[in-house]
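1st attempt posting a full record on here, be nice pls
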Amino acid sequence: MLLFREGPRQDAETSEDAWPGEHPEDYVRRVARMKAEAAWQRVVMRKGLRRMPVLAADTTVALANEMLAKPADAADAARMLRLLAGTRHRVLTAVALAFEGRLEMRVNESHVTLCPLDEPRIEAYVASGEPFDKAGGYGIQGRAGAFVSRVEGSYSGVMGLPLFETVELLREFGVSVP
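the predicted structure (as tokens):
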């Protein structure tokens, strides 16, 4: 299996912009599917690459029905953290695997509770630069892990790649994994 991570999506086929009225579950499914399909097409176009399954994932945070994707800037990151502080919210990660015209997907849903956060703590976290390129403006695997008082579900799913669902997909495609 080829493993590589690309930067933010610039092409329309894999835009991470939410559609008006799109539900968080539909959003993560659509974006993970588009990423996997686009990656598979790149494998097919690069004739010298060995054809193996390609994996793609996407994560979003939902508070009620408001989707909190990646913050646009520091002010947006601070806004998201203010919304999430002291709340229980959902983290949804879709994992898609594509190979030879076949695409399968799994979605993991976890619930995360953040502790209350005061403005100095939010400002310091935003100034660290860590909230950027992270759904909901925080990364549980970094400094913001100290804000998390409870996780119900998959820690790896909250990080952005739920291992259980990923291994299930890989095994379905005949990839040898534990």
